[in-house]
Prior knowledge:
Largest sheet: none
Low-confidence stretches: none
Number of helices: 2
Amino acid sequence: MKLTKKQPLFIVTGASCVGKPTLCNELFINEKEYIVMESDLLWNVFMTLAVEAVIC
């Protein structure tokens, strides 16, 4: 098994209008490779799977 390099995980959360995008811009100003995942994307997948499980 090939070990992979562990990367930091940043979870940015907060109420509306508190500056989450501004913080993210500052966090990644010097980074070149990163992935941004919207929580709505993950939540929608979870909810779809849950609904499908109930229907089946």
